[in-house]
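Dear colleague,

Thank you for sharing your sequence with our group. We've completed the structure prediction you requested, and as agreed, I am returning the results in plain text so they can be pasted directly into your records. Please verify that the sequence below matches your submission; if there's any discrepancy, let me know and we will rerun it promptly.
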Amino acid sequence: MSSPSLVLRSNIEAISEFVFYQIAPDFHRECRELGDAVVIGGDNYGQGSSREHAVLAPRYLGVRAKIIKSFARIHHANLCNFGILPLTFKNPADYDLFNKGSQVGFPQVRQQIAAGKTEITVRVDGKEIITLLEVSDRQRQNLLAGGTLNQLRQELKEGG
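Please find the predicted structure tokens below.
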């Protein structure tokens, strides 16, 4: 039996309706209403989702960051490629501070990324926590550009 989303692979808008549909059937609608969203996850997050759609569809929905206990390797790389900030909890117990609808902020995140910081401050419902950004210099540049394609366009425009 195949997934009903497989035939939609070239239609990002349509396939985005299947993001987390088994655990949160209205996720796609809620993301569209919010405009920007953050996903909070557990251990080995993204395992088995090496296809770019596992990142491209959430990006389309406005997911701008994922704060996770630990990432699956390929998914982590794909997040950087599409400009979604891949953060891990410095203190895994901070996971419990988040609830659906939590207000999440990233004060001076661009400056922190550009400065090469590995510890990124995040605000959740008024409390500050520390997350970890474990990326290469190239991935850091891709994140700042909003993804690999944007970074390549920028490099071509600059003649490099």
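Summary note from our side: The mean pLDDT is 87.

Kind regards,
the structure core
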